[in-house]
Amino acid sequence: MASASASATLSFLALPQRPRPRRCSGGSRNPSVLGLSSISIGSGPAAGGRRRGLRLSVCRAAAVVFRDLDADDFRHPLDKQNTLILRAIPGLNDLGRALLGNVTEQVMLLENIGTSVLVSKNQLSDLHELMVEAARILNIEAPDLYIRQSPVPNAYTLAIGGKKPFVVVHTSLVELLTRKELQAVLAHELGHLKCDHGVWLTFANILTLGAYSVPGLGGLIAQRLEEQLFRWLRAAELTCDRAALLVAQDPKVVISVLMKLAGGIPSLADQLNVDAFLEQARSYEKAASSPVGWYIRNAQTRQLSHPLPVLRAREIDEWSRSQDYQALLRRAAQINSLQNV
């Protein structure tokens, strides 16, 4: 992914966050220092009450590989619309580069890989195969994958100054999710790279943070750009949930991750019910359909970085039953069949 500046995606598991001014401090830091928010779900027993280690069984090859997949084949309409709006803002790209600079790039790079383990064929090979398979399904080059020791379940992607992008996954996330759910998270991160979200995600994650620290300019940037950036962010997350579905090819896998984000309890994982959570999502839509409910919903979400988990679950359920998604599956299956003859 070509990028003139550092770019960072939001975590798939990030709770909807309102922006807050923060400064890097000495000592141990984590991705939230740079605007990469995360959710503290905690590690623990996996489904069935059994604790899992890092050793995983690799997923079997997916039935459908999207050999000619283009980003616009699955990009959410709101993503397209809000990207055009951002591109129309004069000087935004130059301002972002000025605020970021080479120092910030190096901080991001060293912070996120300095204490991690690089996954490869010879290092955590099962995780390596999950990433390679997800990238193959989405028709994209696999980025580097790092595993970082952390009790906070999280995953995020960075692309630094045109260098090869990489994905960072926390160990507690590996323990929290099933292997199919973990691969869906990897696919979500790949979706950001596939759709070239890096530049705009940089602005949302770091430009807003930097703007607060520039005297006289911070308030102006926050007022003018913050709402639009976060509106775009929410749309971009919907796009990448679709990428997760293209790899998982089962909407319940993606919805299960969102359910665990909203209130999953590792020790009771065997009692979690995806269908019940999806029904909860439908009830939220119904409750928000009245004039008062519509106003409250907009007030709740206007300054959030991520859509509410129930809304993301509803969106992915609807897209999984859409003609567009089914057409993508049929086209890919036909291409696969012809190439396998």
From TrEMBL:
UniProt GO cellular component terms: endoplasmic reticulum membrane
Requisite cofactors: Zn(2+)
Free-text cofactor note: Binds 1 zinc ion per subunit.
Keyword tRNA-binding attributed: no
Peptidase M48 domain sequence ranges: 125-319
Record keywords: Hydrolase, Metal-binding, Metalloprotease, Protease, Zinc
Keyword check for Protease: yes
GO molecular function, one term: metalloendopeptidase activity
Pfam families (UniProt xref): Peptidase_M48
GO biological process: CAAX-box protein processing
Matching InterPro entries: Peptidase_M48 (IPR001915)
Similarity comment: family membership: Belongs to the peptidase M48 family.
Protein name, UniProt field: Peptidase M48 domain-containing protein
